[in-house]
Amino acid sequence: MSGCPFGGDQQAPAGTHSGASAAPAGTSDGDNRRLSRRGLLGLAGVGGAGAVAGIAAGLLGHDALAAAAAPPAADDSVIPFFGDRQAGITTAAQDRLHMAAFDVTTDNRAALIELLKDWTAAAEAMTAGRTTGTTGAVDGPYDAPPEDTGEALDLNAGRLTITFGFGASLFEKDGKARFGLDGKRPDALIDLPHFPGDALEPARTGGDIVVQACADDPQVAVHAIRNLARIGFGKARVRWSQLGFGRTSSTSRAQQTARNLFGFKDGTNNLKAEDTALLDEHVWAGAGSRAGEAWMEGGSYLVSRRIRMHIEIWDRTSLREQEGLIGRTKGEGAPLSGGKEFTAPDFSVKGNDGEPLIAMDAHVRLAHADQNDGVRMLRRGYNYTDGSDGLGHLDAGLFFIAFVKDPRTHYVPMQMTMAKEDVLALEYLKHTGSGLFAVPPGVSQGGFVGEGLFD
Ligand SMILES: C=CC1=C(C)c2cc3[nH]c(cc4nc(cc5[nH]c(cc1n2)c(C)c5CCC(=O)O)C(CCC(=O)O)=C4C)c(C)c3C=C
Ligand SMILES: [Fe+2]
């Protein structure tokens, strides 16, 4: 959006963007509040187009009034925030990620609840394409910082989803329960074990609360995390954050399979939103065995791993070896046992040399459900590059994200096998960050994220 929210007809008051501390001549704070397009959309949602037209009457020209009176068009850039499940899990994976883990700095339970309520309100607004707060980016008092940082003003909602999860350290720290949450830490929210080869950096690991913002526009995703961080000031601070620029998983059969930075199709045999029975079996958490963990029913567990990929070494590896390490062809993404991309791999097929066509230590063999007690996961990772390491190497890789029913059965054993046997992992990957978070079920209108935890 331009400085003028309703097109080129109205000029922003002189000095609006100059950083001048005083309101422009002839305007009071109230006069200077203009109804932004986003604010308008928000009002349309609450009171309908007629109400919007009435409120706007004193502020808008004739054309703008006519436009405002028209019923709002269905906006396919909006993914509803409220629902039985949190969005951002089975939602068709967006192109961009900004994930942040926060440490809660207040000790006060009421302040934590207030933070979650404020975050819920802001998340609902931003996912609907509106600004945060009641006055947004440009309609508040001239002498106060705006309630919204403003960099998404011209943009649509971008299919933004904001997904919240709670880390073990929210429940207890140094052996002491926090926020009166004794007995509420789910048994599945374990401290992940050390895996062979782990090179985890504390500043990229853990966190009390994780927020996953996914959108088709990077600015929308960054805007979301930035505003939540701003709202959290004094109660929570960012521990780590990660940008991702290319989805490495499809989570719907309607999506084309994307590629990771090794150049391979990633997500071919992922669980998809359409696999509802498999999602019940492998992704959605149950009520647990204790009353204290029942609040997680219908939620899931988010595993995040920042996996650096040694792409310079990979780029000097033959195509034969690359395909052998993955167990699929690079072009089509077909299993080396034959067929096309979505043909099921046949791990028993052998070549003329008597060796299996999909090697015993190939990534897809070791990760396949057949080798892992039948368990599957919903992967939702992103490619990342974070500059270079000063030694002439890109700090690039895959920010692995998976949603699972129970990490004890659905992540730890598989990761342990890979850390020990997967040549891809042993020679080309380094895990530099890690997190495990309990993702509560969805939020209903009038509620707040994680509400069940505080019942
Ligand atoms: C512990 C879980 C997994 C980690 C960590 C992981 C890292 C990782 N994977 C690739 C590339 C590919 N993975 C593929 C398949 C695949 N990977 C996992 C799990 C982990 N991957 C699973 C469960 C599967 C599916 C296996 C199956 O059922 O066939 C593929 C093939 C295409 C696909 O099905 O997605 C590729 C390619 C990288 C580069 C990586 C770390 C950087
Ligand atoms: Fe993988």
Automatic annotation (TrEMBL):
Binds 1 heme b (iron(II)-protoporphyrin IX) group non-covalently per subunit. Its cofactor is heme b. It is an enzyme of class 1 (oxidoreductase). Residues 257-443 form the Dyp-type peroxidase C-terminal domain. Residues 86-245 form the Dyp-type peroxidase N-terminal domain. Involved in the recovery of exogenous heme iron. Extracts iron from heme while preserving the protoporphyrin ring intact. NCBIfam families: Dyp_perox_fam (TIGR01413), tat_substr_1 (TIGR01412). This is Deferrochelatase. It comes from Arthrobacter globiformis (strain ATCC 8010 / DSM 20124 / JCM 1332 / NBRC 12137 / NCIMB 8907 / NRRL B-2979 / 168).
